[in-house]
Amino acid sequence: MRRRAFIRGAGLLAAGMLLPIKKIFCGPTPAEEAILTWTELIDYARWCPSPHNVQPWRMKIISTAEAHLYYDPKRLPSVVDGTSAFSTVGLGMFIECLDIAARKNHIQIVASHANEPVLNAHAPDLQLFAKLYRVQTPAEISVDRELIKKRKTSRLSYDGKIISEDIIRSLTALAEKYGQQFSFSTDEDLIRYTIDLNSKTVLQRADEEDTRKEMGQWIRTTDEEAKEKKDGLWYKCNNISANMFRNFFFHHERFKSKWKRNFANHKMNKTMDGTANLAWITGPFSNRADWVNTGAMLQQLWLEMTKHDVYMHPLGTIVTTPSSSEAFRRRIGFNGPANDFWFLVRMGYSKEPPRSFRLETKDILMS
Predict the structure, then answer these.
(1) Are the beta carbons of 277 and 347 closer than 8 angstroms?
(2) Number of Cβ atoms within 10 Å of the Cβ of 342
(3) Which of 39, 130, 186, 279 supports an S-S bond with 111, CB 3.0-4.6 Å?
(4) What's the predicted TM-score (pTM) here?
C-alpha cells in the first residue's frame, strides 16, 4: 500500500512539474492567445479621444481573429449630441486606433457595422456597434502607433507661433483623402472673434438646465475623483481652477449677474492667449457612414499634428450650438449645408499639457 501511495504521489508530483513545461513548450491556449492579441491593441486605442472624455467603448473578444465593439448608452451625451454624430465619430476614431496599432504586424482591422442609423442613448444595456476582424494585409502604414499614446489635447495658452505651410499641406491632403476640406486661417480678427464666441456660447449653454445637468455628470473637480473615475473633464486639463469649474456647473446661479458673466467670459478668453492658428473642417456629415469616415480621418489628422508637436483644442460648443454655428459660418462665408460644417479647432504650440485619465484595458473588456 505504501509503495502504491508513493508511486501515485510521485506521479502527481511529476504531472505538476510537467504543467509549467507544457505551458512553456505548447504556448498559450487559443482563448489566452485571443486575449493577448486584442488587449495589445486596446492598450493603444484606450487613449483615443472622445466627446467630454466619456469613453463609451466596450470590447468582447470572440477569437484571435474577431472581437465585437459595443457602446455603453449611459456614457452617451444625448443632450449635447442629440443625433449621436460626435459619439459615432469617437467610436470611428477608436476603430482607427485599433487598426493603426495592428498594422505593425501587417494586420488591418475590418469593421462590419451594426444596422443602426443612430446610437440609442436610452437602451438599458450595452449595444453592438461593430464586429471587428483582424485580416492579414501586405499594405504598409506610415503612422507610428506610439503617437496614439503621445497625443494630447492642449487647452493651455499657446505661444503665438504660426504653423508651417508644409504641415498645413499635409493636413489638407489627409482631409481630401477622406472627402473632407481642411481650411486654415491666421487672421487675428477672426481668431479673436472665435475665441470670444466660444466663451459666450459656453455661458449660453450652461444656462440650459438639461445641458448643465448632463455635463455635470462628467465634471471632475478634484484630483482624487479624476483618478478614481478615469473619465470625464478634469479641471486641470481644462485650464480652469477647481473652484471656478465647480461653481460654474454646480452653482451656476452665481454667474447670473452681468459683471460675473463678463468676468467668466474674460477668464475663459485668457486661457486661450497666444492662439495664432485656427482651422475648420467641412464635408459630408449627415449619416452614420459619414461620421465613422470622419472619425478615421480625424484620428489620422490628430496624429499627424502630434508627429510635428502641434497641439489642438476643439471648439465643439460653437459647432453644436445652432446660433453660434450659423454666426461662425456667416463670418467665414460658408454657404454649404449646415451639417457639413462639423469641426472647428484652435491649433498651435504650448507647454506640455496634463494628460486626462483613461479607463484601463480591463475596464473596457467585457467578460
Answers:
(1) yes
(2) 25
(3) 130
(4) 0.91
Residue given cell 465634471 in the structure block: 219
Dig out the grid coordinates for 177 from the structure: 483623402
- Regarding beta strands 181-185 and 277-282, do their DSSP bridges make them parallel or antiparallel, or are they unpaired? antiparallel
**What is the side-by-side strand order in the sheet with 57-61?**
57-61, 66-71, 127-136, 107-113
Give the H or E element holding residue 344.
Answer: strand 341-348
Q: 75-118 pLDDT, tens per residue? A: 999 999 999 999 999 999 999 999 999 998 899 999 999 999 99
Tell me the C-alpha distance between 364 and 25, whole Å: 31
Element (H, E) at 2: helix 2-26
Domains of the chain: 30-147 (3.40.109.10), 153-348 (3.40.109.10)
Distance of CA 336 to the CA centre of its chain: 27
| DSSP E strand stretches across 89-224 | 107-113, 127-136, 181-185, 219-220
Residues 280, 183 contacting (CB under 8 angstroms)? yes
C-alpha cell at 325: 454655428
For CA atoms 221, 227, 229, 233, the dihedral sign is positive
> Are 359 and 305 within 8 A, CB to CB?
no
Mean pLDDT rounded to a whole number for the chain: 92
Q: How far apart are the C-alpha atoms of 206 and 181, rounded to whole Å?
A: 31
Q: Find the helix or strand (DSSP H, E) in which 59 lies.
A: strand 57-61
